[in-house]
C-alpha cells in the first residue's frame, strides 16, 4: 500500500488533470452542476453495483469516477467564487470532528497528524458544540460519555445534528427526497430509532407485519386498487422495518434476489435454445423443472 505522501500526491495529480481538462477539453468546458448531475447519479449506481458484487477492481475504478465528479463540482464552485476542494474537505473534516466529541482530537495518532500538530477546526462556528463544549477534549474528558457501540454512536450523531447551527429542522428532514423508496424507508425508520421511536422488542414487529398483510389482503379482496396500493405500501414498510430490526439490509437483500432470479431465468433460456425450442413453447411445468435445475446447480457450486 502507499504512504501518506504518495496518497496526497495522487490526489493532487488527479486534481491537476481535472483542472487542465476544464481549461482545454471542449466537453469539460461546457459542463455545469445541472449537466453533470445525471452522470453523477449513474456513477454512484455503478459504484453500488460493484460494491454488491464485491469486485475490488471495479470498486476502485468506480470510486475514481465518483471522486472525479467531486473534484469537478469543486472546480465549478471555485469558478463561481463560492467554494473549492479545500472548502469541501475542511467542511467535512469539521463536521466529522464536531459529531465525534468523544474523540480526543488533541491526541496525535500517527502519520495522518500533519507535522505532529493537533487537528484543528477551520470553521469557527463549529468550534463550540450545542452544550458549550469545544470539539476538542482534553485527556481527562476524552472518554466522557464515550459510546461503546455503533448504535450508540448513531444516536449521538442524531442528537448533535439536531443542535448544529445549519442542521436539519427535524429528525426526518435530512432524508433526501430523491432516495430510492426502499433505502428511504430504511433511513426514515433508522433516524426515528435514533431518537427512541422504535419497538421495545424486535419480535413485536411481526404482529405489525401480519396486521398489514391482513389489511392488504382485505383490500385486494374488495378490488379497491387505490386502497390496495396504499396497503401494499404499508406492508412493504413493515417488512423493511422488520429487516432493520434484525440488522438485514432490505435493498441488498432484494438486489441479491434480483440477481438470483436473472441467473436462473437465463439458465432456462439457455437450455431452451440448446434444445432448439422457443421459450414460449414450454409449459409452466417444464419451466419449473428447469428452474429447479438451476437452483440445484447454484447449490452445488456454492458447496
Number of helices: 11
Ends apart, CA distance between termini: 33 Å
Q: Assign an overall shape.
A: extended
Task: Specify the structural class.
Answer: mainly alpha
> How can the largest sheet be summarized?
none
Q: What string, H for helix and E for strand, traces the elements in order?
A: HHHHHHHHHHH
Tell me the layout of helices and strands.
Layout: H1 4-24, H2 26-30, H3 33-53, H4 56-79, H5 85-98, H6 150-161, H7 181-194, H8 205-222, H9 225-245, H10 250-274, H11 284-302
Helix pairs in contact: 1-4, 3-4, 7-9, 8-9, 10-11
Task: Explain what you see.
The longest helix is centred in the C-terminal third of the chain and has 25 residues, at about 250-275. Helices cover about 65% and strands about 0% of the residues. It is mainly alpha-helical and about 300 residues long. It has helices at about 5-25, 25-30, 35-55, 55-80, 85-100, 150-160, 180-195, 205-220, 225-245, 250-275, 285-300. It is built from 11 helices and no strands. The two termini are about 35 Å apart. Residues about 130-145 have low confidence and may be disordered. Helix 1 (about 5-25) packs across helix 4 (about 55-80) and helix 8 runs antiparallel to helix 9.
Amino acid at each position: 500500500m502507499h504512504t501518506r505522501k504518495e496518497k496526497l500526491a495522487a490526489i493532487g495529480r488527479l486534481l491537476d488533470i481535472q483542472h487542465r481538462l476544464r481549461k482545454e477539453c471542449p466537453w469539460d468546458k461546457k459542463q455545469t452542476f445541472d449537466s453533470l448531475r445525471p452522470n453523477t447519479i449513474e456513477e454512484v449506481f455503478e459504484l453500488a453495483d460493484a460494491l454488491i458484487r464485491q469486485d475490488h477492481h471495479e470498486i476502485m475504478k468506480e470510486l475514481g469516477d465518483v471522486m472525479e465528479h467531486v473534484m469537478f463540482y469543486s472546480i465549478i464552485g471555485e469558478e463561481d467564487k463560492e467554494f473549492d476542494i479545500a472548502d469541501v474537505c475542511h467542511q467535512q473534516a469539521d463536521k466529522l470532528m464536531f459529531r465525534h466529541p468523544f474523540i480526543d482530537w488533541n491526541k496525535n495518532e500517527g502519520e495522518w497528524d500533519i507535522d505532529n500538530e493537533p487537528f484543528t477546526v477551520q470553521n469557527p462556528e463549529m468550534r463550540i458544540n450545542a452544550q458549550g463544549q469545544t470539539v476538542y477534549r482534553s485527556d481527562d474528558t476524552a472518554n466522557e460519555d464515550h459510546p461503546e457501540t455503533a448504535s450508540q454512536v448513531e444516536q449521538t450523531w442524531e442528537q448533535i445534528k439536531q443542535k448544529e447551527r445549519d442542521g436539519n429542522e427535524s429528525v426526518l428532514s435530512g432524508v433526501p427526497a430523491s432516495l430510492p423508496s426502499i433505502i428511504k424507508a430504511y433511513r426514515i425508520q433508522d433516524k426515528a430509532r435514533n431518537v427512541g421511536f422504535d419497538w421495545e422488542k424486535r419480535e413485536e414487529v411481526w404482529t405489525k407485519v401480519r396486521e398489514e398483510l391482513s389489511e392488504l389482503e382485505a383490500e385486494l379482496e374488495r378490488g379497491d386498487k387505490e386502497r390496495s396500493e396504499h396497503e401494499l405500501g404499508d406492508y412493504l414498510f413493515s417488512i423493511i422495518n422488520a429487516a432493520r430490526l434484525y440488522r438485514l439490509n432490505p435493498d441488498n437483500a432484494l438486489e441479491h434476489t434480483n440477481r438470483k432470479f436473472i441467473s436462473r431465468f437465463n439458465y432456462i433460456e439457455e437450455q431452451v435454445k440448446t434444445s432448439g425450442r422457443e421459450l414460449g413453447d414450454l409449459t409452466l411445468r417444464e419451466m419449473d423443472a428447469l428452474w429447479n435445475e438451476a437452483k440445484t446447480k447454484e447449490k452445488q457450486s456454492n458447496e
